[in-house]
Amino acid sequence: AQKVTQAQTEISVVEKEDVTLDCVYETRDTTYYLFWYKQPPSGELVFLIRRNSFDEQNEISGRYSWNFQKSTSSFNFTITASQVVDSAVYFCALSMSFQKLVFGTGTRLLVSP
Amino acid sequence: NAGVMQNPRHLVRRRGQEARLRCSPMKGHSHVYWYRQLPEEGLKFMVYLQKENIIDESGMPKERFSAEFPKEGPSILRIQQVVRGDSAAYFCASSPGQRSYNEQFFGPGTRLTVL
């Protein structure tokens, strides 16, 4: 069975602080995909990143970076110099090819001015 | 290229009524997934469909819920005899299928409120 754990329920930071959101996953498959989605207060789901299990290269996109470590089954997400607009619920998710996404319970990030 | 469309965006029903939620996938996408998000919770998979076929319905409640994705037209999630516990946000996602890394594009969701 597949499972995604986001142990941090809520994180509060002050603007310009760096923040890391943790994601630990479980799967027996050797081929799988990991995702991060953002859900702002307006409620829609915004796709942030997809990684496949064969690509452990870390990725940076502007203020966002992701650290994928198969050895610890983790796919952590770091926001550098956080901004108020980053306030949202962030979901980590796991899937096998062409199959359902298994979501974590989400981490609510509150960035105050 | 329009994104995934869902309608209505908000739906209010009284207990015992039927709810019909529609999802039009992105152009060229042949795979549709439905997820439910209960208040203050994460998204839970309900059903995965391709045109005219249900591929995986392991997340669908056994009673009152059904889904279809006809050859023509949108995918429909139907909830019969709604109860207060059905109040949730229902998200549809679509995927191209072939030659895809299963990147699922989500619609804006339908917020169902059962009075």
From the helix content, strand content and strand pairing of chain A, which structural class follows? mainly beta
Stretches with pLDDT under 50, minimum 5 residues of chain B: none
Strand content of chain A: over 45%
Number of strands of chain B: 11
DSSP E strands of chain A, number: 12
Radius of gyration of chain B, Cα only, in angstroms?
13 Å
Number of helices of chain A: 0
Give the N-to-C terminal Cα separation of chain A. 41 Å
Strand content of chain B: over 45%
Q: Name the overall outline of chain B.
A: globular
* Total helical segments of chain B: 0
The main sheet of chain A comes to:
6 strands, mixed
Q: Please write the string of helix (H) and strand (E) elements of chain A.
A: EEEEEEEEEEEE
Shape of chain A: globular
For the largest beta-sheet of chain B, the strand count, sense and barrel status come to: 7 strands, mixed
Helix content of chain A: under 10%
Biggest interface, chains and residues, is:
A-B, 22 and 27 residues
Explain the overall architecture.
The complex is a heterodimer of chains A (113) and B (115). In chain A, 0% of the residues lie in helices and 52% in strands. The mean pLDDT of chain A is 93. In chain A, strand 7 and strand 8 form a beta hairpin. In chain A, the strands form three sheets. In chain A, strands 2, 5, 6, 10, 11 and 12 form a six-stranded mixed β-sheet that branches. In chain A, strands 3-9-8-7 form a four-stranded antiparallel β-sheet, with no helix packed on it. In chain A, strands 1-4 form a two-stranded antiparallel ribbon. By secondary structure, chain A is mainly β. Chain A has strands spanning 3-5, 10-14, 19-21, 24-26, 33-39, 46-52, 59-61, 64-69, 74-79, 88-95, 102-103, 107-112. Chain A contains no helices and twelve strands. Chain B is an all-beta fold and 115 residues long. Chain B has strands at 5-7, 10-13, 19-24, 31-37, 43-50, 53-56, 65-68, 75-79, 88-95, 105-106, 110-114. In chain B, the strands form two sheets. In chain B, strands 2, 4, 5, 6, 9, 10 and 11 form a seven-stranded mixed β-sheet that branches. Chain B has a four-stranded antiparallel β-sheet with strand order 1-3-8-7, with no helix packed on it. In chain B, strand 5 (43-50) and strand 6 form a beta hairpin. The model of chain B has no long low-confidence stretch (mean pLDDT 92). At the A-B interface, strand 5, strand 6 and strand 11 of A face strand 4, strand 5, strand 9 and strand 10 of B.
